[in-house]
Amino acid sequence: MGTLGYATWLAYDLSMVIIVFVLQGAMILRLYALYMKSRKVLALLSVALVAEQAVNVVIMVYEYRFISAVEESLLGSHICSISITVAWWIPVSNDVVVLAFHTMAAVLTLYHLVVYLKQRQQLLSLQEMLLSKDLRIILIRDNILCYLITVKLTALTTLADGAVIRTISLTVVTAVIGPRIILNIRSHGLRTDTAREFNAFTGRFQDNGPPEAKCEDTMSSWT
């Protein structure tokens, strides 16, 4: 593989590190909001994120010395990919670190859900969990879903042991999961703003009275 190929691979990996860092940072902020701006939760997850990314970068730099170009077949198409010949436990250790961070986030999410259900004194049905428009439920639901997808994709990349599969998994995480958890919050914000504006309008309408009443008052004053 030439210098351009190495540079392209390195630029791609660095960009993925940055994107994943941003998405996991968003996950931290979601838990920070769930725990009512708890600084302990923020500090714990921030330290875990920095440690995870540090391990990821160290492994990436180490693997850089052992990559080579190979031809792979994906759905009948031949593509140029990379092969990294290192001990099996090196990429697996990276996956373990990633799963450790997401497991920590999932445990905090489930703990908050248990506390919430105790306060609510009523279990949530599956339909409520999937369709609820409550912001708290949206955050909990997305966090759990993100964890389950991450576990499945990590297991797939570990078992398949292919650069193509790993690339597809990272694409799913960055292009599907990330935007989805952001859009869910934006959708809730839009609904909240619309409801607030409607309530403000109806409040003014009730204070001033309907237009028909104003017309009747005006006509009666003329007569």
From TrEMBL:
The chain crosses the membrane at residues 12-35, 41-62, 96-117, 138-157, 163-183. Keywords: Membrane, Transmembrane, Transmembrane helix. The lineage of its organism: Eukaryota, Fungi, Dikarya, Basidiomycota, Agaricomycotina. This is G-protein coupled receptors family 1 profile domain-containing protein. It comes from Coniophora puteana (strain RWD-64-598) (Brown rot fungus).
